[in-house]
Design brief:
The chain has 325 residues and is of the alpha+beta class. It has helices spanning 63-72, 91-110, 124-163, 175-179, 203-242, 257-271, 278-290, 296-301, 303-318; strands at residues 46-54, 59-61, 83-85, 112-113, 120-123, 183-190. The chain has a four-stranded antiparallel β-sheet with strand order 4-5-1-6, with helices on both faces. Strands 2-3 form a two-stranded antiparallel ribbon.
Length: 325
Amino acid sequence: MTMYVGAAANEVTTTEAEVRDVPNNPSEPAPAPAPAPSVPSIASSAMLVELSISVWTGRKKDKKASEDVTRQNYAATGVASVNKKLLGDCAELVTVQKLTASIRNLHASMTMPWSDTGMRLVPTAQYFKYHQQMDAMRQEWQARVDEFLNAYDWEISVAQTSLGDLFDRDEYPTREALEGKFAFRLNYIPLPDAGDFRADIGNDAMAQIKTHYKENYSRQLNSAMKDVWQRTYKALSAMSERLDYAATDKKKIFRDSLVENVVGLIDLLNVCNVTNDVQMAAMARTLDMTMRGVTPEALREDDTFRRDVKQQIDDTIATLPSLDL
């Protein structure tokens, strides 16, 4: 199935102005060509963002233990691998690792996919909210990293007891070296227009590269818009499934986040609609009307209300574009 996400981008193509009648008097200047209309492009609606977070895993393969396990079980060399936690279940390190996962999830939820290299698309309308939240998370992350580093020497002594014969002091980096294994980088990159490509090459090669870049640009943008539709489908489908029970049936349990996730789609569809897609704008308006007055408590307590809301959600799902799901 083919998904419809609207035009890949609003592009401006510069052409030569139509030649007007030249006056008979050669000394009289020709009329100036009419200026080309200014059409907004996706480059003015979004930018690229690259998030890179590195964290020390605290894990290491123990070659001797791996060989022992292999030999004791009469197995072929290399089929068994023993990996150990150098600091055991160090609470400070676990906190940093969990927070890192939360930051990456937040980053993914507030941006749209763009390239296989990890860069993602952030709408300019979302930038300030995104940057504010990511900066707060960065400060929290750095504070937790500092707590871990301060506890590092003590945790080594604790690990010596828990690891027993697996403990090897040479496997632990110095405090200074360990600091270099933690990094938090956030880079913003302007998004070029699909037609904005310059190179000092021949005309034939230039045309070929422009065509290739335009196709890739459209493909990446289509993937970004499809991701928004997939998030919408997932949240609506979850609500439909959880509300699917009659008054005489056993009530299905659902969290308040079921409603919050669908309400959040309204902002998502508006903010991420960088191509001004009419279908996406209409979906945002529909959900805004549907979710007015909808609360988790009302859905749990009022069978008729729950049934009506489920029907509206199902009707909305039926209008979604094909997503190849």
